[in-house]
Amino acid sequence: MPDLSIVLSKEDIAKTVQLLAKRISSEYQHRELVVVGVLKGAFVFLSDLIRQITLPIQIDFIGVASYGAGDFSSETIRLTKDLEINIKEKDVLIVEDIVDTGITLSWLIAYFKSLGPKTVRVCALLDKHERRKCDIQIDYVGHVIDKGFIVGYGLDFAEEYRNLPEIFQLKS
Ligand code: IMP
Ligand code: MG
C-alpha cells in the first residue's frame, strides 16, 4: 500500500466548496453561466460545486489529455472530448481539479476564447505553484498547495485513487 498523507479532510473540502459556490452564485447573477468541467479529474469537485450554486446554469464537460500514465507532465495537449453546448456569447466558468504547470489551462482558455464567449473564468480546487510555467489567472481558488503529488476526490495517479473521499499527498 503506498504511503498517503491527508491534505484535506471531507470537512475541509465541503467548506471550500461552499465558499466557492457562494462567490460564484453572487458574481454570476443575471448572467448566462455555462460551467465546464475538465475531465476526468474535475468530475467529483464539479458535482459537489454545482449542487451549491443557487443560479440557473448549464453544465458541460471537455476532455483533454496532458499526462501519460504517471505523474510526469507532457506539454502536448490533446482534445479527447469536445464541448456539446455552444458557448458563443455565454459566460464560461472552467472547473479544474488542480493547476500544476498551467499548460492545460492556458491551452483551454485560448480554445474557449476562440469560440466567442462573453467571458471565460477559471475555478480550481487546488493551485499547485511548484512547477508553474504559464502565467494564468485563476479567478476562484480552493487551496494553494506548495508541492507534491495529490490524489483522491477525483484526482488520480495512473487512474487510481479517484474514488477516495479525502485529498491526500502521495509519498514516494
Ligand atoms: P498542468 O497542465 O501541468 O497544469 O496539469 C493539469 C492536469 O494535470 C490537472 O488537471 C490534473 O489532471 C493533472 N495533475 C497535475 N498535478 C496533479 C497532481 O498532483 N495529482 C493529480 N493530477 C495532477
Ligand atoms: Mg485535470
What can you tell me about this protein's structure?
The protein is α/β, with parallel strands linked by helices. The protein has one domain: Rossmann fold (3-Layer(aba) Sandwich), CATH 3.40.50.2020. Helix content is 22%, strand content 38%. The protein has three helices and nine strands. It has a six-stranded mixed β-sheet, with helices on both faces. The chain has a three-stranded antiparallel β-sheet with strand order 1-9-8. Helix 1 crosses helix 2. The longest helix is centred in the N-terminal third of the chain and has 18 residues. The radius of gyration is 15 Å and the shape is globular. The chain starts with a strand and ends with a strand. The mean pLDDT is 93. Inosinic acid binds next to strand 3, strand 5, helix 3 and strand 8.
In CATH, the topology is named: Rossmann fold
Report the total helices: 3
Largest sheet: 6 strands, mixed
Small-molecule binders: inosinic acid, magnesium ion
- Mean pLDDT metric: 93
Oligomer: single chain
**Widest β-sheet, arrangement of strands:** 4-3-2-5-6-7
Q: Which SSEs are present, and which pair or pack?
A:
Blueprint (H helix, E strand, L loop, with lengths): L2 E6 L1 H18 L5 E7 L3 H8 L7 E10 L5 E9 L9 E9 L3 H11 L5 E10 L11 E6 L3 E3 L15 E5 L1
Parallel strand pairs: 2-3, 2-5, 5-6, 6-7
Antiparallel strand pairs: 1-9, 3-4, 8-9
Magnesium ion binds next to strand 5.
Short description:
With 172 residues, this protein is of the alpha/beta class. It has a single domain (3-25, 32-171), classed as 3-Layer(aba) Sandwich (Rossmann fold).
